[in-house]
Amino acid sequence: MGAAGYGRELLDLVEAINAAGGDAYGFLGFLDDGHADPDPLARRGSSVLGGLELLAGLDADYLIGIGAAAARARIDRYASACGRRPTTLVHPRAHLGGDVRLGPGTVVCALASLTTNIRTGRHVLVDIGAGIAHDCHLGDYATVAPGARLGGGVQVGAGAWVGMQASVVPGRRIGAGAVVGAGAVVTDDVRPGLVVAGVPARPIDPADGSAQAARPPIVLPRMPELAPGAPQADL
Ligand SMILES: CC(C)(COP(=O)(O)OP(=O)(O)OC[C@H]1O[C@@H](n2cnc3c(N)ncnc32)[C@H](O)[C@@H]1OP(=O)(O)O)[C@@H](O)C(=O)NCCC(=O)NCCS
Question: Which CATH number does 89-214 carry?
Answer without folding.
Answer: 2.160.10.10
